[in-house]
Amino acid sequence: MQHLDIVDISARYGREPVLQRISLGVDRGEIISLIGPSGSGKSTLLRVLMGLLRPTEGYISFSGERIDYTSARNVREIRNRFAIVFQAYNLFQNMTALDNVTVAPLKIRRRDKREVVPEAEALLEKVGLKDKMRAYPDELSGGQQQRVAIARALALRPELLLLDEVTASLDPELVAEVLDTIRELAGEGMTMLIVSHEMGFVREVSSTVAFMDAGRVVEVGPPDQVFGDPQEARTQDFVRKILRG
Asked: Which pLDDT score is estimated for 172?
């Protein structure tokens, strides 16, 4: 049994199907990247995992336990084990970088400030922001703000980290600093599910790549196979276009 099992998951926005019988497994310490055209359901799958959109079919289990997304208590419990970083940084503008990282452990988890603050300082140092702990978001670049958002997610001590297009809104020169942070987490064995259009990075950091299209998983395999020798015609077409571009 895998650490995370997604089995035949379907979901809708209103009457519109957005996920259609998605099945995917993630082992502990594995990094799976979801690739595919816009609107293929990649970000939606992350939203389902976090309980932001309820599945209509199938089930998801984590560490051998099924998640009941109809139960508010169960969703709260899983949000204690998963953390997500969105494309938008969503930092509190009236709080310093350090305060943004400590607020959830202090206010939601009710942890001891004497423990939380040193951990938050260490996380900000980990993401290369040791000298920016007292800075406010409007004093930080986009890449720095996104790294604060990653540190904030890590402060929740997640067992699974979901990254949803975390470089999409950044200027090209700022992308590298965020990707370096993710590389470091990968090297430490963090289990991650990543949605990204940075194909060079995906090929480098992923243990598995899943290509999605029209709400379905079309092909799953190691990066070298998906990018170098795709088996499905739709994957072949996608890879040919992105490599040509």
From this structure: 81
Question: For residue range 8-26, what is the model confidence (pLDDT) as tens digits?
Answer: 999 999 889 999 999 999 9
Q: Is the pLDDT of residue 61 over 90?
A: yes
Q: Is 69 exposed, middle or buried (0-12, 13-18, 19+ CB in 10 A)?
A: buried
Determine the pLDDT at residue 109: 86
Q: Tens digit of pLDDT for each residue in 27-42? A: 999 999 999 999 999 9
Backbone Cα Rg of the chain: 18
- N-terminal to C-terminal alpha carbon distance within the chain: 39
Quote the CA–CA distance of 153 and 159 in Å, as a whole number.
11
Q: Which amino acid is at 162?
A: L
User: Average pLDDT of 155-178?
Assistant: 87
Domains of the chain, residue spans = 1-81+160-245, 90-158
Q: Which of 184, 218, 204, 220 is nearest to 26 (CA)?
A: 220
Distances from the Cα of 218 to the Cα of 174, 206, 234, 235, angstroms: 31, 17, 8, 7
Q: What is the DSSP string of 6-44?
A: EEEEEEEETTEEEEEEEEEEE-TT-EEEEE-STTSSHHH
For the domain 1-81+160-245, what is the CATH superfamily, name and number?
P-loop containing nucleotide triphosphate hydrolases (3.40.50.300)
Higher pLDDT, 218 or 87: 218
Residue 13 Cα to chain centre, angstroms: 21
| Arithmetic mean of pLDDT, 123-148 | 93
Q: Which residue has the tokens 């990707």?
A: 179
What secondary structure letter does DSSP report for 245?
-
